[in-house]
Amino acid sequence: MKLAPIAEVTRGGQVESIHFGAVAVVNVRGELLYHAGDPHFLTFTRSTIKPFQALPFLRAGGPARFAFGRRELALLCASHSGEAMHTAVVESMLHKAGCDEHHLQCGCHVPIQYAASNVQPPPGASFNQLHNNCSGKHAGFLAYCRQHGLPLETYLDPAHPLQSAIRTCLADAAGVPEAAMVAGTDGCSAPNYALPLSRLAYTYARLAQQGPDPHFGELTGELFSAMTSHPELVSGTGRIDLALMQAGKGDWVAKGGAEGVQVIGIRSAGLGIALKAADGSARGLQPATISVLQQLGLLPDHGSPLESWRTTELRNLRNILTGEVRPAVSLVKA
Predict the structure, then answer these.
(1) N or C: which end of the chain has fewer CB within 10 A?
(2) Domain-located, residue 136
(3) How far is the C-alpha of 332 from the C-alpha of 282, rounded, in Å?
(4) Rounded to whole angstroms, how far apart are CA atoms 93 and 211?
């Protein structure tokens, strides 16, 4: 396991802790251009693969069948914050598919909006599965099953035809054999897969590419357009994926995943970028992400709209400044 420093934590001007990880930057042909640490570090993809989990639904003409527009396509790919703008679209998607919240099997958690805004939920607040950050993806799963007359009760079973189709699409997108993908179960109970970091980066280079994909045609472009048109639905208020896509002004598609995974596709540059924090921490991942974009010449060194994500002040319980989290990643040309 070859890992590189990606961020460091200071106290009193001294480095107190170091976050390690890996970075891979590839082009639309899958060629490795830059890296830090092991660019082929085997990484569970977590929520970064949501656009590719939506591909079977798009291939089968699902959006036209259920009158899903760009807002709904964005929710298929979302790790949303459970804000009203998110839950309303998911509820509508379920209704169009003849389902409701009780058909979902993603489970319930406190909406991400509270952690993102650093506030506690109001006393007595109650939540349901619509607030799960993956509910849009699951609504798409259910719609696919309705369209094809497949059982709803087992839609998350790895042997279900839907999950088999997803597995094939992901392997095709990453350019790896299906049998080579290590399988696991995601936090929302859907099957999830581990890929070499460079292959994960490649999927986003393809998602962001200009023109039709040789294998998926216009479908990846439709998902790119939906995600970049409605980044607030893919992510949520105060979150880095929203900030990244807003800074990219329609040129960047960004998607994070649990346990310290971040992937970005850059259309104009024909790049896919994937980062993994080995300790699973967003604390080190976020400054490293901004630094990588700067090192690639995609952001200025100073005055960037993402500057607040590059270095984070650390304060104690009395609001006294004690240190900072700052990037330590250094890209190497392949």
Answers:
(1) N
(2) yes
(3) 22
(4) 28
Instruction: Tell me the pLDDT tens digit for each residue of 103-156.
Output: 999 999 999 999 999 999 999 999 999 999 999 999 999 999 999 999 999 999
Q: Examine residue 123 and state whether it is found in any structural domain, yes or no.
A: no
Cβ-proximal residues to 119 (8 Å cutoff; 6+ apart), any chain: none
Determine the Cα–Cα distance for residues 124 and 102; give it in Å rounded to an integer: 21
Residue 120 lies in a domain: no
* Structural domain for 201, as ranges: 4-115+128-333
Start-to-end C-alpha separation, the chain: 18
Number of structural domains (the chain) is: 1
**122 falls within a domain:** no
Contacts of 147 (CB under 8 A, 6+ apart): 57, 60, 62, 65, 66
CATH code for the domain of 44: 3.40.710
How far apart are alpha carbons 116 and 238 in whole angstroms?
6
For 49, phi then psi, to 5°, come to -90, 10
